[in-house]
Amino acid sequence: MAARPRVVAALAAQLRDLDAAEEAFAEAAARPLAMVEPPRDVAAWLFVAAKRRALDAARKARGEARKADALAEISDMADILQLPDPIPDERLRLLFICCHPALGAEVRAGLALKVICGLPVSAIARLFVVSEPTMFQRLTRAKAKVREAGIAFELPPRESWPERLGAVLLALELAFTAAYADAGGELSADLGEDLGAEVERLALLVAELLPDEPEAQGLAALVLLARSRSGARLDAEGAMVPLSQQDCSQWDYARIAQARALMEAAARAGRSGPCQVMAAIQLTHARRGFDGVVDWSTVPAAL
Fold it and tell me: Pick from 32, 60, 82: which residue ends a domain?
């Protein structure tokens, strides 16, 4: 469901429990809409319904009085659904939380992919080349550590962002890979498209927040360049078209120009990295749309 990442992120930020957020959403999504007319905003309905389910669970659980009191301030469903956008967007904050240095390096990106991007465990396991049970155990332990260690559900101070940046960029890169590759067909077409758009939004936001980090600029450029070719990736039968054979007239040149500007900003920092290398290669391919040439000699210069 396309609404899942945004709703789960908002719930996790308020419940301060990743498992509770996912469980509350799953329960709300599994229940039929008990309304004469469907809500105008299903995501908003799910957010409020899931929050109420979490409140009920907190009230029933022993020793959860404080959590229940904290959640008690819930507006009436009708009032919530009248608002233009009642769900706070917490995905970027939660992305940095999932990449906390207290968590193992091998699981930070995986946790972000599960909680924020909504990827199934099987898809995450394929990305990390491990078995599904192994990845499930890693994610379960990581969520338990977040809860038991009392990791703050707050965006860390700005000076702490660089130490989490590597895991943040890896999570975004893997999410984008999953959205565009999806070789096993596990992701629905809608989820893949929504996930690609969300990764683009988050990558651009990270690049904007960290203008002195060239790898953040490089990843944002890489995502933009890949997204610029969305309209030319498949032929009329749904088969993938090789990049060298794509119809350049179907490319998005506004995204290409934005990516080039990001690469120029990254180059001024004088610190190359893998994201910038990959973006430089993609930018070289994009040149074919302007003069019909793929000039590989420009790659070193772009770095």
Answer: 82
